Amino acid sequence: MQNHKRALFIAAWVSTAAYAETPPVMEEYTLQRLEQIQAETVLLEAKAARARIQRELEESGIDARTANLPLTGRELAILPRAGGLPSVEEIYGSGKQLMARLVLSDGKRAELRQGEQIPGTRFWVEAISAREVRVADGNDKRTLAFY
Questions:
Q1: Which pLDDT does position 83 carry in this prediction?
Q2: How many CB atoms sit inside 10 A of residue 33's CB?
Q3: In angstroms, what is the C-alpha Rg of the chain?
Q4: Is there a single domain that holds both residue 89 and residue 50?
Q5: Which of 69, 97, 128 is the last residue before a domain boundary?
Q6: How far apart are CA 118 and CA 136, in angstroms?
Q7: pLDDT for the residue numbered 18
Q8: Is 31 in the same domain as 77?
Q9: CA dihedral for 130, 136, 140, 146, sign (positive or negative)
Q10: In principle, which of 23, 66, 94, 101 could form an S-S bond with 90, CB 3.0–4.6 Å?
Q11: What is the pLDDT of residue 88?
């Protein structure tokens, strides 16, 4: 009887210890993996933005390797934009009702929905997503840079 009680106690303790150990280890692994995925995503988004900017500079006739680009966002904002395109200040709304607040080349702001023309340009808003605003003019399609 004494051995039976001792065996039950040990079995209960082992199963409790095993159960208590598993979730934190799994939870820690999951959180570490999520952090790793987020870090990789940020890096990939930065690389994509860099490639997009280099392409825009090349399209504007500026050599990205020798361009003397200022370091602050405020100074970058006053650089002439390719083709007089605006930059994105904000994307807001939900679902299919997204709107974009754009900063036009003259400094004015415009709030537009998909399908609306950008004032002072030949471009219209082709698509708005949570991450980007794409514009088109029939021949040319571009993704606008953020302000």
A1: 56
A2: 10
A3: 27
A4: no
A5: 69
A6: 10
A7: 52
A8: no
A9: negative
A10: 101
A11: 93
Say yes or no: 60 and 114 in one domain. no
Closest to 59 in 3D by CA, of 143, 147, 115: 143
In the chain, which residues have pLDDT < 70?
A: 1-29, 61-83
Looking at the structure, tell me whether residues 10 and 51 fall in a common domain: yes
Backbone angles phi, psi at 92, to 5 degrees: -145, 170
Of the candidates 50, 69, 88, which is a domain's last residue? 69
51 shares a domain with 84 = no
| Residues ≥6 apart with Cβ < 8 Å to 145 | 52, 53, 56, 81, 87, 88
Integer angstrom CA distances of residue 10 from 2, 5, 19, 35, 42: 12, 9, 14, 38, 48
Q: What local confidence, expressed as pLDDT, does residue 128 receive?
A: 94
Which pTM does this prediction carry?
Answer: 0.46
